């Protein structure tokens, strides 16, 4: 059986690592790009150890040359991807009145420009292969609601939601569906690389903010991505909120 192929940015740790592992467990060959080469290698090594096929590549997704090199390596080693997941992202939270424009620009460059570059460069290969495919962008509920001092991150994630529906319309005639997932509170500390990992703990108050009664985990996002990559053949241009219901619950301070 021919393996389907996933290309994922930011697959070295956190949500990206879970997505890579879940797709590999479902038979995908996985190409992982991350600015942290060691983290990318660790994700790929686990997939290979479990009998899968994976490659790791260091890339800063805001840099055109890095993205194009990753696309070339993926094509040469694994082939044209069937699914692309844009998970690479950073945050630079600071008081709005003192947020440096260089910090704002860096967040937009990685989160939004990177999403555009990766999608465009891989979509060119997907169109040439004429097999269709799926692109899944990882946005955030910060595109819909905010806390103070999150302007750069929120703006980048709002841009990803808009980029998703725009590119869905542009790429639809080529058989490429584009959707995004907006995670809410996802506990990623256990999914960090190496000594950055820690054991998470949430209070009853934390859990009670979610109608489902718990904080999310990376596996929740991975399952949403598998749905959008697979059986959701009539779904495109959509923003799937994965937040345990947190954004629909009104919370009044006592």
CATH superfamily: NAD(P)-binding Rossmann-like Domain
Order of helices and strands: EHEHEHEHEHEHHE
Percentage of residues assigned to helices = 40-55%
Strand order of the largest sheet: 3-2-1-4-5-6-7
Give the CATH level 1 class.
Answer: Alpha Beta
Residue-averaged pLDDT: 93
Number of domains: 1
Q: What class do helices, strands and sheet pairing give?
A: alpha/beta
Beta-strand percentage range:
5-15%
**Overall spatial form:** globular
Topology-level CATH name? Rossmann fold
- Spatial extent as radius of gyration: 18 Å
Major sheet, described briefly? 7 strands, parallel
Say how many strands there are.
Answer: 7
Query: What multimeric state do the chains show?
Result: single chain
Q: Which blocks of ≥5 consecutive residues have pLDDT under 50?
A: none
How does this model look, in words?
- By secondary structure, the protein is an alpha/beta fold.
- It has one domain: NAD(P)-binding Rossmann-like Domain (Rossmann fold, 3-Layer(aba) Sandwich).
- It is built from seven helices and seven strands.
- It has a seven-stranded parallel beta sheet, sandwiched between helices.
- Helix 5 links the parallel strand 5 and strand 6.
- Helix 4 packs parallel to helix 5.
- The longest helix has 29 residues.
- The N and C termini lie far apart (58 Å).
- The model has no long low-confidence stretch (mean pLDDT 93).
The gist of it:
This protein has 254 residues and is α/β, with parallel strands linked by helices. It contains 7 helices and 7 strands.
């Amino acid at each position: 059986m021919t393996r389907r192929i996933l290309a994922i940015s930011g697959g070295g740790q956190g949500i990206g690592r879970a997505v890579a592992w879940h797709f590999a467990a479902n038979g995908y060959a996985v190409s992982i790009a991350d600015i942290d080469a060691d983290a990318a290698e660790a994700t790929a090594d686990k997939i290979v150890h479990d009998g899968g096929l994976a490659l790791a590549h260091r890339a800063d997704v805001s840099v055109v040359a890095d993205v194009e090199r990753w696309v070339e390596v993926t094509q040469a080693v694994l082939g044209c991807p069937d699914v692309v997941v844009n998970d690479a992202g950073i945050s630079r939270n600071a008081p709005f009145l003192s947020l440096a424009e260089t910090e704002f620009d860096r967040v937009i460059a990685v989160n939004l420009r990177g999403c555009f570059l990766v999608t465009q460069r891989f979509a060119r290969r997907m169109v040439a292969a004429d097999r269709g495919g799926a692109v899944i962008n990882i946005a955030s509920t910060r595109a819909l609601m905010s806390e103070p001092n999150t302007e750069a991150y929120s703006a980048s994630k709002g841009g990803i939601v808009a980029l998703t529906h725009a590119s869905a319309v542009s790429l639809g005639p080529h058989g490429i569906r584009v959707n995004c997932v907006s995670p809410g509170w996802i506990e990623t500390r256990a999914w960090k690389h190496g000594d950055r990992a820690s054991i998470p703990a949430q209070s009853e108050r934390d859990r009670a903010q979610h109608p489902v009664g718990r904080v999310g985990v990376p596996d929740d996002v991975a399952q949403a991505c598998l749905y959008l990559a697979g059986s959701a053949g009539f779904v495109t241009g959509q923003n799937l909120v994965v937040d345990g219901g947190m954004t629909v619950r009104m919370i009044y301070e006592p």
